[in-house]
Design a protein that fits this description.
The chain is an all-alpha fold. It is about 75% helix and about 0% strand. It has a single domain, classed as Serine Threonine Protein Phosphatase 5, Tetratricopeptide repeat. The chain contains 6 helices and no strands.
Length: about 140
């Protein structure tokens, strides 16, 4: 049921194919509203899947948001959280740094919290790798 709801929504908002339509001219107010609704829906669905620890589905929805609006800060933040869960720290940092670049002084504190968390997770991962390599050469 959950998958069908997303599929139906995507098809209704984007056209029959469900693919993102790249407009060649300015969007009408209705098209703009539909685009914003799709962005909001995919952001919310991504958060739900993230909370349910369904990381691949969360990432798919984050990618849909970023396809519609590459500068969407919520989409970038959720994508960073998903990439942290996948241990793709470089991609997560890239997303968070883009938020900092977009928002400047208005950047939410949670972005910096996530950047600190990545730094700590990378340190733990590096220590683990050092121990693993040390055991290989004993």
């Amino acid at each position: 049921m959950e998958q069908h709801l997303g599929d139906v929504f995507a098809k209704n908002a984007a056209g029959e194919s469900g693919e993102t339509v790249k407009p060649t001219k300015a969007l009408t107010p209705v098209q703009k509203d539909l685009r914003e609704i799709r962005i909001t829906a995919h952001n919310n669905i991504a958060l739900c899947y993230y909370k349910l620890n369904q990381i691949d589905k969360a990432l798919d929805n984050c990618n849909e948001v970023l396809k519609l609006d590459p500068d969407n800060t919520k989409g970038l933040f959720r994508s960073a959280q998903v990439n942290i869960a996948r241990k793709f720290y470089d991609k997560a940092k890239e997303n968070l740094q883009k938020i900092v670049k977009l928002c400047g002084n208005q950047t939410d504190q949670s972005v910096y919290v996530e950047l600190d968390r990545i730094k700590k997770l990378e340190q733990v991962e590096n220590e683990k790798q050092k121990k693993d390599f040390a055991r290989m050469f004993k």
